[in-house]
Amino acid sequence: MFKKFTLVAIVAGLGLSGTAIAAKGPTPKISKASAEALALKLAPGKIKDAEYEYEGHGWRWSFDIQQKGHIQEIGIDGQTGKVVENKSEGKVDHD
To answer: Would you tell me which CATH number, out of the four given (3.10.450.40, 1.10.357.10, 3.40.50.2300, 3.40.50.170), belongs to the domain 27-88?
Structure first.
């Protein structure tokens, strides 16, 4: 019983600290407003969700944009401003 509790506590602790570290990230060189403007040029519509996140190999602005009949996810590198993702998530957001 003690081993199960200890393992659960360690896993839970790692999950919490991992979230705290991930939430800090480096300060983006590309502003949210600039990244959002680029995302909306690529996929005109209504932004349903926006966040600065670590995904793949770096930090990026991520926008889920409601378009006619589907959600388009656009990822903009927070340091360079390059488009790192542009894909349809179907009718609903899969993240």
So the answer is: 3.10.450.40
